[in-house]
Automatic annotation (TrEMBL):
GO annotation (BP), single: Gram-negative-bacterium-type cell outer membrane assembly
Protein name, as recorded: Outer membrane protein assembly factor BamE
Family, similarity comment: Belongs to the BamE family.
Gene Ontology terms for molecular function: protein-macromolecule adaptor activity
Keyword Lipoprotein in annotation: yes
Pfam families, per database record: BamE
InterPro entries: BamE, BamE-like, BamE_dom
């Protein structure tokens, strides 16, 4: 009798472990989602207010340097069938309240070096 109960338990363990991909797991996005079209709207000498209008507020403002903003976006996939986890960063530097440098995982437009008021 105990042998049949043990076999039933083992069979249940193997059948339920085969169903682990049936469980729905949600994707977990964190941070600022930035679209490539919005990043391409950035131009040198934009003010902080103009950058906020285009991209939104940054996730992180450096506590020691108020002229550096960090836009970070991370996606953790709940299921591998929907793609891989990824992370994108954008670092923006200002001098005297004007945009001077952009670094990160995004392509800038060819007109980045042309100010808006030119």
């Amino acid at each position: 009798m105990k042998l049949t109960q043990l076999l039933i338990v083992i069979a249940m363990i193997f059948t339920t472990s085969a169903c682990k991909n049936w469980i729905y797991r949600i994707d977990i996005p964190q941070g600022n989602y930035l679209d490539d079209r919005d990043v391409k709207k950035l131009r040198i000498s934009m003010t902080k207010e103009q950058v906020i209008y285009v991209l939104g507020r940054p996730v992180v403002e450096d506590s020691f340097d108020k002229n550096t903003w960090y836009y970070v976006y991370e996606m953790k996939r709940g299921m591998s069938s929907r793609g891989e986890d990824f992370k994108k960063d954008l670092i923006i530097d200002f001098i005297d309240g004007k945009l001077v440098k952009v670094e990160g995982d995004f392509e800038l437009s060819e007109e980045f070096d042309v100010p808006l008021d030119a």
